[in-house]
């Protein structure tokens, strides 16, 4: 299901913003092009665009309230729950989506139930419980049937997928499309390509829809190529595009990029890649780790999955300026967070000097 608007009624001043940065106290700025925002916000959106090197930009979505892009989605989906007078929301997630849904539900005075995987990162578990969500770790394949029962029997509103191949909440990509609006205002032009970490493809599609709306409104004639960045451990979108299918299902192998690994794709991802003349890049964990280290050297601490955009830029050798990599969330969300990696040092100069020399500091 697609959401449409009375585009001819959108204020002409909506995209006339002074300066390179988009000041925002939330998604309210874009209300004429969004579903009703009945849920109170948390200052989501308006995230910084960091130039990594000439022509290569990082859209840092970790600066959102719960440190991920999912805050844009959940401002819209929790608003839908309020609009339906639902007593709460339910979500299947072991990371960013669950944490964000729990935060926006708490802000709106709604209960939140999260069906998580048993191996979810401890830091994410603490995050969810801080918002007093009901966290239910269950085997992965059991999450969706149980979620359906909660919806049918208890009336909670689903803010994540319920279908075998991914269809998702129709309001979800509406929140994501505001990234396209911000990119246009920050850059002053439409980027040549946008590289997006991709699981189900909702973020990819939402950004693409935002750019198509800019063209529909007469703001620009140019559109970017959408580059979907999938982990090699499971790349259903790559298979769907390769075989000309609306969606595909694949086996999942082990990977540390848990936020974007998925056995199924959704039709929205195929639409974004096909209609933009884009492509799907499949990346292994080694490429993701290299990109994450490069981002860290530039002062950006990202989740492993979030480094997929830059990994794709390096794999493709992209040089057409400007290129944007969407970094979806903070390194806080990775599974290894909580494991100490620093070794103690004796509190004396010779020991300290030795460690510094070993690190190349002289």
From TrEMBL:
It comes from the Bacteria. One of its GO terms (molecular function) is L-serine ammonia-lyase activity. Residues 42-328 form the Tryptophan synthase beta chain-like PALP domain. Keywords: Lyase, Pyridoxal phosphate. The keyword Oxidoreductase does not apply. GO terms for biological process: isoleucine biosynthetic process; L-serine catabolic process; L-threonine catabolic process. InterPro entries: Ser/Thr_Dehydratase (IPR050147), TrpB-like_PALP (IPR001926), TrpB-like_PALP_sf (IPR036052). Its cofactor is pyridoxal 5'-phosphate. Pfam families: PALP. PANTHER family: L-THREONINE DEHYDRATASE CATABOLIC TDCB, THREONINE DEHYDRATASE, MITOCHONDRIAL-RELATED. This is Threonine synthase-like protein. It comes from Streptomyces xiamenensis.
């Amino acid at each position: 299901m697609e959401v449409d608007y009375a585009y001819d009624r959108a204020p002409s001043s909506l995209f006339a913003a002074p300066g390179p940065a988009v000041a925002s106290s939330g998604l309210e700025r874009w209300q004429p092009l969004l579903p009703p925002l009945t849920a109170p916000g948390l200052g989501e959106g308006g995230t910084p665009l960091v130039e990594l090197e000439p022509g290569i930009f990082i859209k840092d979505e970790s600066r959102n309230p719960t440190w991920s892009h999912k805050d844009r989605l959940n401002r819209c989906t929790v608003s839908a729950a309020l609009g339906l007078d639902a007593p709460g929301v339910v979500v299947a997630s072991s990371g960013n989506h669950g944490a964000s849904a729990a935060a926006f539900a708490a802000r709106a005075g709604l209960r939140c139930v999260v069906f998580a995987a048993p191996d979810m990162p401890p830091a994410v578990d603490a995050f969810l419980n801080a918002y007093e969500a009901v966290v239910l770790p269950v085997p992965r394949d059991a999450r969706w049937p149980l979620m359906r029962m909660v919806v049918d029997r208890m009336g909670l509103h689903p803010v994540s997928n319920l279908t075998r191949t991914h269809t998702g909440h129709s309001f979800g990509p509406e929140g994501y499309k505001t990234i396209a609006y911000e990119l246009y205002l920050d850059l002053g032009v439409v980027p040549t390509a946008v590289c997006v970490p991709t699981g189900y493809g909702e973020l990819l599609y939402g950004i693409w829809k935002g750019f198509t709306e800019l063209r529909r409104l007469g703001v620009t004639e140019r559109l970017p190529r959408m580059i979907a960045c999938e982990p090699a451990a499971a790349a259903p979108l790559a298979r769907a595009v390769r075989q000309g299918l609306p969606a595909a299902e694949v086996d999942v192998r082990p990977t540390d990029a848990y936020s974007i690994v998925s056995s199924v794709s959704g039709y929205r991802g195929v639409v974004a890649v096909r209609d933009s003349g884009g492509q799907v890049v499949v990346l292994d964990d080694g490429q993701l780790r290299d990109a994450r280290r490069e981002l860290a050297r530039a002062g950006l601490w990202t989740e492993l999955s979030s480094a997929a955009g830059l990994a794709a830029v390096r794999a493709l050798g992209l040089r057409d300026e400007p290129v944007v990599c969407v970094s979806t969330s903070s390194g806080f969300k990775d599974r290894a967070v909580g494991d100490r990696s620093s070794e103690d040092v004796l509190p004396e100069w010779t020991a300290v000097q030795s460690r510094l020399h070993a690190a190349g500091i002289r």
